[in-house]
Amino acid sequence: MAAESQAPTAGEYIIHHLQHLQNSKQSAVVDFSVVNLDSVFWATMLGVLTCFILWRAARAATSGVPGRFQAAIEFLVEMVDSQAKGIVHSAESRKFVAPLALTVFIWIFLMNAMDLLPVDLIPQIWHVAGPALGAKDYMRVVPTADLSVTMGLSVTVLLVCLYYNVKIKGAGGWVHELFSAPFGDKWYLYPINFLMQIIEFVAKTVSHGMRLFGNMYAGELIFMLIALMGGAFAFTATGIGLAIGHIIAGTVWAIFHILIITLQAFVFMMLTLVYVGQAHDAH
After folding, report:
1. Of 86, 130, 155, 175, which sits most exposed with the smallest number of CB within 10 A?
2. Which domain holds residue 98?
């Protein structure tokens, strides 16, 4: 970033805001020992908040006239349950899958919603506290704008799907399906069938994580560009115009972004249900 006495350029501002707080310096080669500490922290905190919200709703639930909080949670529960019933036909599996989908939806919604905070609010707080704690002056607060987080979520969904493939079909039945579908149970088609199955698993997992990451990363960039308009404020016609544009564009994009963060959480939840439902279906 630019020196303290010199204001950063637009490029320096964006590059700085896209840096993660990490446990060590990232090298040019792939290094799985490097951890994005900010993403882990905020994802964990919001995961705990998700569990607390659901625990609080269950604890405060009454059979009488529900309050607004209980009504909102009940609406989400009924929505997720109806979707789960239409996709996962095993009532036994839905005892785990439906609560999982509800947790995924609320958790991802909260992580996405961090994008609605002012771009420089938490980074500026960390700008003061971070160096004092011996940490680098980086802090990103939208976990779903980090590819490692979204791919971690999608890989977890893949593991759940593999579990249900084995549980529903048996280890032998699933292995047989890997080699006999989709083109038929012929020995000369086994290599092609197996290759297609692996490609399907990889494609679903990658697209599942990349879709969420791409949308949230783009939304984060747009908020940064809007913030640059406000940063150009000065007592000139151009500066005042940019400041007004910053307020209008920020308000419009924030309102529209509420739809995006909700939709992306819903899409990720629905794909989770679809993939788990497919694990129950025999080819």
Report:
1. 86
2. 35-280
Catalytic residue among 36, 165, 180, 215: 215
Residue 130 within a domain: yes
- Please report whether residue 19 resides in a domain: no
Total-model pTM: 0.90
Candidates 253, 265, 90; CA nearest to 167 is 90
Cα angle 18-19-22, degrees, rounded to a multiple of 5:
145
pLDDT tens, residue order, the chain (283 aa): 444 456 678 888 888 888 988 887 765 556 677 899 999 999 999 999 999 999 999 888 887 788 889 899 999 999 999 999 999 999 999 999 999 999 999 999 999 999 999 888 898 888 887 666 666 778 899 999 999 999 999 999 999 999 999 999 999 999 999 999 899 899 999 999 999 999 999 999 999 999 999 999 999 999 998 988 877 666 777 778 878 888 898 899 999 999 999 999 999 999 999 999 999 887 6
Is residue 215 among the annotated active site residues?
yes
Give CA–CA dist 276/88, Å, rounded: 7
56 is catalytic: no
Q: Is 165 an active-site residue? A: no
Q: Is residue 206 a part of any domain in this protein?
A: yes
